[in-house]
Amino acid sequence: MTIWELDFYSRPVVDEENKKRWEVLICETPTEIDRSPDALFRFARYCPAKTVNSLWLGEAITAAIEEAGVTPKKIRFFRRQMNNMIVKACEDIGIPAAPSRRTHALTRWLEERNRDFYPNQEGYNEALVNVASVQYPPLNAVPLPDAVRGDKSDKWAFVTLEVGAFDDYSEWEVGFGEVLPLKAMGLDEATKIPGLVIFSPRALPLAGWMSGLEMAYLKLETNPKAIIRLETGVSDSWILVNVTDPETLTEAKNFETAKSKAGNLHFLAVQSSPESESFAGFWLLQEEEAV
Question: Using CA atoms, how far apart are residues 279 and 282, in angstroms rounded to an integer?
Fold first, then answer.
């Protein structure tokens, strides 16, 4: 499935009338463990100041589709203030638009352009540089929907997998999920990637529900009570696990420490039982550093 990431916003460059130049950036989301970033589709086009609207953006997306030779199944974007324009442009050409914090490839590209490309453009103004990724304050975490909320038969555990364990990921049996280009991140094969596994008789409905979200990352919250939050979309937050005793809280803190050591990489897995050899769901996640 082809997924794209899009940003449509002003850049730190002004035109001959001293107005900020707008630009659309579109890149492909890497959804394979061994996908090289150099192989990803990228598209960039400046927008005239007088035509910053959904019509121009839709035409730019159409041009990108023609250039790529493929139509994406959905387009992710992270700037909430551009929601209406991006959603309208995508709807007009029949592509779902998804507000998301899972725009890692786009974030890296914007960082590269802020560092290497825009400073070499005529009209560059360093004071206009925008951060590559916009961090919105997360909402208060809410309980999972009743249809997928666990009961006393559900269990969960913190685990770790070495980077090398993902060498045969293509052979894993996974119902729902999405991964990141782990092999292109330059991590040592022995680096431990922490994760949380949920064991539930309702594993498939839970994983199916999660597949409809823009999965961002897991986060330990200790105040006012200890929980593991599942962050989705651009600011949505769910109570995934209640941490109820000191021993488990220590494990949760160790999970956060291991995340940090692994470049904030971690994973969430859903299985029907500890004995299962397949995953109802598996997501490789990465928390972006706050900016």
Answer: 6
